[in-house]
Design a protein that fits this description.
Length: 406
């Protein structure tokens, strides 16, 4: 997981800006837990590295002054913030030795808020004294600030004027965003061919309940030819299921269902179609998916968040919307009960409309050479649903702990 890091001559400037971003990105989440008046430096072996928004996390084994190994947990900003400064998920790897500067936990437990890090080859990300004073100020969370009254008689217009950003509209500085945003007015205003159909609406999954043995209900049947790894997990699932036991259902622990299950779970999906993107929201846990339609390139692999819904890029092929999705996590990601998938998964969807625009036909073509052989194909349907909105839904592990059989 190597990465060519910024040159040593750029180090001080890069570090100051990098840590300023950390402060602003994390103050509202974590400032109260950390002693921002102290800095500790620890060296250890990386045992876990989570590259994800809104936070990154590093776990590392550190030998303390008494010669005892401790597990240190370091919190940092999300992958979007880190990408600005040359870091990526390939900057270091599990098993690498790194040195971390952090504000320690107030509790005294081994852990802290990232200030900087140094790789084994000496490439460093840190702070300057000038930066530190500014960063500490930013880390003071509002709950701990003494209220100061504004100037007497100040109008809201005066307040707005003095707090106004120096440039409007604000322009993002995210290197992962190589073009305009999907909802930028200039992007929406571009001339494009008219789409074959508009998916805006609420759509209920068609379970084909009376024909479950034929079509699989919310599962994909028939199965493909599983690899050895796929056969093993499916056999374990059957053993548990036939005994009436739950087997590895991550959604019960509030993991996202992810693709393709997001599209085939019971409960409605709300879709909002724009010329540049289709935004999808699920009733179950309010999972979010977006299909980009504005011709953007994929994010570079070294910066991409591997997640449960992947990165979906669509284009029109006549009266069919073709969506190519990749960039999946292998962390607790299921196709369906007993069938795991991971970062080798690729999904092509061919989406069309039937029944006067009241039915979506979704053809799935899925490959994952780690878990099955060849293509796994299936067709599912969703039907337009009226007088039914997608409302807020929340998965809480504390609630799930009360479910039977867990």
């Amino acid at each position: 997981m190597g990465l060519t890091m910024p040159g040593q001559t750029r180090r001080a400037t890069t570090l100051a800006v990098f840590l300023l971003c950390i402060a602003s990105a994390q103050a509202h989440h974590s400032g109260i837990s950390f002693d921002t008046g102290k800095t500790v430096t620890v060296t250890g072996e990386v045992t876990r590295f989570i590259w994800r928004n809104p936070h990154m996390a590093i776990s590392m084994t550190v030998t303390n002054a008494d010669g005892v190994e401790e597990l240190w947990k370091i919190e940092g900003p999300g992958s979007t913030a880190l990408s600005k400064f040359g870091l990526s998920k390939k900057t270091f790897a599990i098993g690498d030795t790194i040195t971390v500067m952090a504000h320690p936990l107030k509790s005294g437990k081994p852990g802290g808020l990232l200030q900087g890090l140094t790789l084994a080859d000496g490439t460093a990300y840190g702070v300057t004294n000038d930066y530190e004073a500014r960063a500490v100020r930013k880390r003071i969370i509002p709950a701990l600030l003494q209220w100061e009254p504004p100037p007497a008689g100040e109008s809201w217009q005066e307040r707005e004027r003095k707090t106004r950003p120096s440039q409007l509209p604000i322009v993002g500085e995210n290197p992962r965003q190589t073009g305009p945003g999907a909802l930028d007015p200039e992007n929406l205003a571009k001339q494009r061919p008219a789409p074959a159909f508009d998916l805006t609406g609420t759509w209920e999954f068609r379970g084909e309940d009376d024909y479950r043995p034929m079509y699989g209900w919310y599962e994909f049947k028939p199965h493909p030819e599983f690899t050895a790894a796929g056969k093993k997990t499916y056999a374990e699932f059957l053993t548990y299921a036939r005994a009436g036991k739950r087997y590895m259902e991550p959604t019960v622990q509030c993991y996202p269902a992810g693709m393709p299950r997001l599209m085939t779970r019971y409960g409605p999906l709300m879709m909002l179609q724009y010329p540049t993107a289709i935004f999808i929201l699920s009733r179950l846990n309010n999972e979010y998916r977006v299909i980009w339609l504005d011709g953007r390139a994929r994010e570079p692999e070294e910066h991409r968040d591997l997640n449960w819904n992947g990165e979906s890029i669509g284009h029109w092929d006549g009266d069919t919307l073709v969506v190519e999705t990749e960039g999946f996590t292998d962390e607790n990601h299921l196709i369906q009960q007993g069938v795991f998938t991971g970062d080798q998964l690729r999904i092509t969807e061919r989406i069309s409309m039937l029944n006067d625009g009241n039915t979506i036909k979704m053809e799935f073509i899925m490959t994952d050479p780690e878990h099955w052989i060849g293509e796994w194909r299936h067709i599912k349907f969703r039907d337009r649903l009226l007088r039914a909105d997608v409302r807020e839904a929340t998965c809480l592990p504390a609630d799930s702990s009360f479910l039977p059989g867990l």
